[in-house]
Amino acid sequence: VTDLAQLPAALAGARSEALGGFGCGDLLIERALMQPRHVEVQIFSDAHGGCIHLGERDCSVQRRHQKIIEESPSPAVDAALRERMGACAVALAQAAGYVGAGTVEFLLDGAEFFLMEMNTRLQVEHPVTEALTGLDLVEWQIRVARGEPLPLTQDQVHLQGHAIEVRLCAEDAHFRPHTGRVLQFSAPPATAFERSAMGALRFDHALEEGAEVSPHYDAMLGKLIVHAPTRAEAVAALVRALQGTRVLGLPTNRAFLAACLQHPVFASGQALVPFLAAHAADLQELLLKKELKALIQCAVGAICSSKMSSDLPCALARPMRLRHEGQVHAVAVRELGGGRLLVEQAGAEPVALQLPQRGVHCVAVGSRRWHWQTGGVDGWVEDASWEPAARAGAAGGAAELRAPFNGKVVALPVAAGQALAAGDTVVVIESMKLEHSLASPAAVTLAELLVAPGQQVSPGQVLARFAPATQGAPA
């Protein structure tokens, strides 16, 4: 509530919802914090009255209210504030008689902090605390559960260096989850599920070529953690690790995470909870520009690597249409022999390629889609060369609606023949337990629905076809 006049209606609505859901209309009114940090404190308690904290983690970079980057120590927490927050977290655990590992989560606003909740477990991001303290927190959990006392007192806990973790997820740059099969996977040398040396990479995952990513679980594929003497060194090492990680076959947020780490706001330690709300669009635009810069070279190389018929030169140029993010790019490819290509595009200088391309990795995903990766750039392309030119050029516009990711159709709120306005929902797809509404791109008539409720769909699959809007249709 940002206006006092809105408060009575908001209270009435919240009380009605509480009564309906829980049979009790009591409400707790909290102060709204518009620019906070999300900072949590790791605590451990034993059954003998011992309770200590192991420092804080800053988890402010989030999408859909879920963390994707966590670090320790927080850039905003000094020793005095750490002592205050730690003392509050310990007091809370002791007052509740808690035993085991726990995470007390706060919103930090300047020097003030406010309790959100306590999670009675180790968090996904516990490896950053393990890195800073040199402790195995899973071992601690087991020892405490066996009735042993904590092995350290508060004075014996020492935090060294800076650690950052990122969550590698099967989702695109717009945070839409995806399923599919891992067709290629490789990563820099790293430890897994155990602490790494200072400056080295820890990568907790279960990825391998051929692994299936299903819609039944969270989209997280793994966690990359770097521990370094300074924050700047940790950021740089983690960016290198992400750029050196190859996951082909389904979209991941690998490039988006690297872009977040390199953003000036994050690099300066100023990222707050609204960081992605404010900067995600700029980051997505930056990644798209990088994709477009590498598109022709990588896409043509990917397609031609799998379709080269001969090492001999060919005098005739081969026309190709490449669909990327709904836009079709027309090029002409000349085979010069020996794996050499010359790619021509209207308004641009010809590009010479030598196959196979160094530093470019690609896989075919189906018969007409390719996933390519080069350094910190990921891209997808469809070969639309065999489609009629009008259809190929319009596929990203108002002629068809295509599935942007794997999922299950859960609702079709419209029917064939219906006039639609721009933004009307045509198909609702469920993926990774989240529902996504796919809308009409313009004022059109729904000519044909090609899917049914309960049907599984794959990226690029045509879900509906449109016809021009009829006279008097909604705009």
Task: Note down, in words, how this protein is organized.
By secondary structure, the chain is an alpha+beta fold. The protein has 9 helices and 27 strands. It has an 8-stranded antiparallel beta sheet, sandwiched between helices. Strands 16-15-14-13-19-18-17 form a 7-stranded antiparallel beta sheet. Strand 18 (369-374) and strand 19 form a beta hairpin. Helix 5 (231-243) runs antiparallel to helix 6 (254-262) and helix 6 packs across helix 8. The longest helix has 33 residues, at 275-307. The protein is globular, with a radius of gyration of 26 Å.
The percent of residues in helical segments reads: 10-25%
Could you give the count of β-strands?
A: 27
- CATH homologous superfamily descriptor of the largest domain: ATP-grasp fold, B domain
Structural class: alpha+beta
Tell me the number of helical segments per DSSP (H or I, 4 or more residues long). Answer: 9
CATH class of the largest domain: Alpha Beta
Beta-strand portion reads 25-35%
The largest pleated sheet is described as:
8 strands, antiparallel
- Tell me the overall shape: globular
Stretches where pLDDT is under 50 for at least 5 consecutive residues are none
Distance between the termini: 33 Å
Number of domains: 4
